[in-house]
Amino acid sequence: MPITILYKTPSMTAEQYDEAIRRLEEAGVLPNPAMLFHTCFGADDNLQVVDLWESVETFEAFAERLAPILAEVGIFSDDPEIHPTHDIIPSTAAWSV
């Protein structure tokens, strides 16, 4: 069952986020086919992240690699909120920022 993850990351900056993504890509864990959706949003000095994963198990496997990288770049958060996903409506548009 798909799950929605809400990361609570107080004061995460764009620089920290970009560095974490770069390191995850270098580590070979991003892109990840089990991650169905990812968005980072908010002000550049207070970003938040929401993910959609195939299952709790696929997210937990990713989180094992994610946690040390977040700590290295100074991103600290509470445990993420994990919610069952009720519905997914895919878009036909391809987005890129």
Fraction in beta strands: 25-35%
* Overall helicity: 25-40%
Structural class of the secondary elements?
A: alpha+beta
Rg, alpha carbons: 13 Å
CATH class: Alpha Beta
The count of β-strands is 4
Outline of this structure?
With 97 residues, the protein is α+β, with helices and mostly antiparallel strands. The protein is 31% helix and 32% strand.
Task: Describe the overall structure.
This protein is of the alpha+beta class and 97 residues long. The chain has one domain (3-84): Alpha-Beta Plaits (2-Layer Sandwich). 31% of the residues lie in helices and 32% in strands. It has 2 helices and 4 strands; from the N terminus they run E-H-E-E-H-E. The protein has a 4-stranded antiparallel β-sheet. Helix 1 (14-26) packs across helix 2 (56-72). The longest helix is centred in the middle third of the chain and has 17 residues, at 56-72. It is globular, with a radius of gyration of 13 Å.
Write the layout of secondary structure elements.
Elements: E1 3-12, H1 14-26, E2 35-43, E3 46-53, H2 56-72, E4 81-84
Antiparallel strand pairs: 1-3, 1-4, 2-3
List the keywords.
97 residues, alpha+beta, Alpha-Beta Plaits, 4-stranded antiparallel sheet, 31% helix, globular
